[in-house]
Amino acid sequence: MLRLFTAGESHGKGLVGIIEGMPSNIYIDINEINKDLARRQMGYGRGDRMKIERDKIEILSGIRGGYTIGSPISFLIMNKDHENWKEFMDPILENKEDKMITKPRPGHGDLTGYLKYNFKDIRNVVERSSARETAVRVAAGSLMKQFLKNFDIEAVSHVTAIGSVKIKEAITDTELIKKADESEVRCVEAGTEKKMIDFIEEAKKHGDSVGGVFEIHIKGVPKGLGSYVHWDRKLDAKLSYGLMSVNGVKAVEIGYGFENTTKFGSKAHDEIYYDKKLGYIRTSNSAGGIEGGMSNGEVIVLRCGMKPIPTLYKPLNTVDIITKEPALATVERSDTCAVPAASIVGEMVALSIIAEEFIRKFGGDSLEEISKRWKDYI
Ligand SMILES: Cc1cc2nc3c(=O)[nH]c(=O)nc-3n(C[C@H](O)[C@H](O)[C@H](O)COP(=O)(O)O)c2cc1C
Ligand SMILES: C=C(O[C@@H]1CC(C(=O)O)=C[C@@H](OP(=O)(O)O)[C@H]1O)C(=O)O
């Protein structure tokens, strides 16, 4: 079983990840992980924090001479911003109190987290509920991506909507999305990107924030990851769980999940054909590569809806937890839009789940053992 533990507060010393269950003898290129960490920091609409951080992974264990050795892989990503928060984030010494947060932000975990954990200062909630944690999930996902590359499994992601600005003709071709990611193709319809940027700028001008939609494609996944035999083994359920755990994601769609609800069955399902060379084939992919809780060999298509960022520079109404009087929600600093960043997080989270399911199906302690079983099955 492949597992990931994450720890770390947003303005604490740093973030920690532990991956347990990674097979041995997988070549890991640290530069590739750092590239994915950098991708997560990009995207129009991010705030000043991203000017401070330059996320880099430091491996502590589990990798030797560039190869995994089967033991838990532990790693660090330091918070450069900690330097500016030392007096408020010291684990041992008493923290200064003049930055206590008492005005919970609607849309964030502030109010319920403070009540649930019986805190005096909402900062305790803010620090861990922050999406800073997603840096660890991207680093871990990037490592798993390198494992999956051995089996020709690859993922791409792209933003399909920022607020009400949508890509009209959604790119459905995985290779084209990949090119877009490499900046060869920017957008299907000329001008869409500018409209998205304008939408973010408009929000920013009014102290507001935006959400949007991103899409993930995973190709090369063999038929049969996940299972129909028990509810908690279904691949669509597992992917939804993982994606829903990405901060701000409130909707997950698989294939044409919503669109299919409006169609007749005759138009909604992907008919089966047989080709002497290719075996069973489909000529459409409405199901998004998953039927009966199992990958069916087609490209896995996932779509996620992210709510607008909860911290507003023109703050929403709230209640001060000390005076119980009406107040405006706390704002220290914030992104206006983080959909492009969330898209990278989603891509890496989805790959982590595919890696976990791949290992569950093909088993084995080393890459060689897994490769043998995979080849036999294929
Ligand atoms: C990459 C990324 C960056 C984010 N940046 C901010 C931010 O600057 N300010 C903010 O209030 N929320 C930000 N969010 C969203 C919050 O983390 C999220 O709304 C919060 O954790 C509550 O989400 P939930 O209701 O889905 O659990 C960001 C999310 C992601 C994925
Ligand atoms: C630190 C990251 O994102 C943060 C996520 C976040 C939130 O509330 O989720 C709030 C902001 O934190 P800060 O107040 O320090 O600027 C974002 O910058 C990151 O993505 O690495």
Automatic annotation (TrEMBL):
NADP(+) binds at residues 40, 46. Pathway: Metabolic intermediate biosynthesis; chorismate biosynthesis; chorismate from D-erythrose 4-phosphate and phosphoenolpyruvate: step 7/7. GO terms for molecular function: chorismate synthase activity; FMN binding. It catalyses: 5-O-(1-carboxyvinyl)-3-phosphoshikimate = chorismate + phosphate. One of its GO terms (cellular component) is cytosol. Homotetramer. Transmembrane segments: none annotated. Its EC number is 4.2.3.5. The keyword Glycosyltransferase does not apply. FMN binds at residues 128-130, 247-248, 292, 307-311, 333. GO terms for biological process: amino acid biosynthetic process; aromatic amino acid family biosynthetic process; chorismate biosynthetic process. Keywords: Amino-acid biosynthesis, Aromatic amino acid biosynthesis, FAD, Flavoprotein, FMN, Lyase, NADP. Belongs to the chorismate synthase family. Gene3D superfamilies: Chorismate synthase AroC (3.60.150.10). Reduced FMN (FMNH(2)). PANTHER family: CHORISMATE SYNTHASE. Signal peptide: none annotated. It comes from Alkaliphilus pronyensis. It comes from the Bacteria. Its cofactor is FMNH2. This is Chorismate synthase. This reaction introduces a second double bond into the aromatic ring system.
